[in-house]
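Need tokens for this chain, all 384 residues.
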Amino acid sequence: MEEKKSYLLGIVGGLLGGIIGSIPWILFYVYANMIYSLLAIFIAMCALKGYELFRGKIDKSLPWIIAIISLVSVSIATLVIIPNLLLFKEVGVISLANLKFIYSDSEFISALIKDYIISLIFTFLGIMMIISNLKKRVNLESDKTDLNNQETNISEEKKEEILNYFIRNKAHTKKTGIFEDELVNEFKDIEDINYLVSINVLTKYKDVYYYVLPSVKNKRSKIITLVVIIILFGIGILFSDSSNSDIDTGNRVVEYDLPSDYIEYENEYDGWYYVPKTDISGNFGGIDVSFDEVDYSFSGIEEFMSIVSESFKDYSITSTSNYVNDLGNAVAVYKLDFPDYEEYIYYVIKDNKYAIIDGINNKENLNNSLESTVKSIADSFDWK
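Here are the structure tokens for all 384 residues:
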């Protein structure tokens, strides 16, 4: 009984195969900080394998189906899977808010689109590498169907007779091949010859037929494959890009505890900036940490606060306070109110040194724990 095949099952299998085939490339991209585009060629190969394993229908549409599946797979990998894994690598949390935020970053989008185009090119190369195999598969399936419909076949004896004829005449290349007229005179019927061509046993070039010995064919195939791999490997390195996503904070001469649900983000000044892992956009509050020193020691917290209060005289100060933390450092606290946000500023003072832990809390997306987080950093802040 003939096995029933389906486009739908084949497409499902092809998509699964394409995604699986993209895994090595994704891992290189995310965890090795390398865009090794050569690995994208395996997406098409795995898409074909998945299509076959799920009993996809094999006909003239197959090359187009595999091409579309491969492009969809690389699109999912590049535009969905990789951004989420990059987020998870950086912040340990995957969230829709973070994904929306990084997609609003023009620099990130520009780099992603460049990588996407390169990946499409290499996926296309993968499709081209298997296209001839696809055509052979399609032709073979078509010939099998025709033979079944016509109830005709060629015996092993006949096949051996034809092949021995080609071997005796050393017809192993286009130049030494045998013309169709000669074959008709020898075998009276060209249909058996054409059948062997259709199943890739013989090769036809215009009116010339020839037989490539299996050992020669395998050797040629291996050489061609090796050359293609070497060329693509070189191109892959040429288009590869290494990047380091770690944020360089320099050699700190201070230390403090950062809550586990916060992460350092976009350090572009002399200090550190932290946001909640669940929303790195800063819409739910951000915390600046910086420190400085002067040429003299403060006589006390009151002197320090008088200096700071003078600089805040044009702002709406909600409250002020001060205390000494468990590390023996004096802490001055200012809470400011603005139309769109609240600001919590904690100054940590030690001799002529001071640190500023500044929390910005958006009123539209009020973070109820932000002030306590600012205080916890201030209470753990100290100089080495």
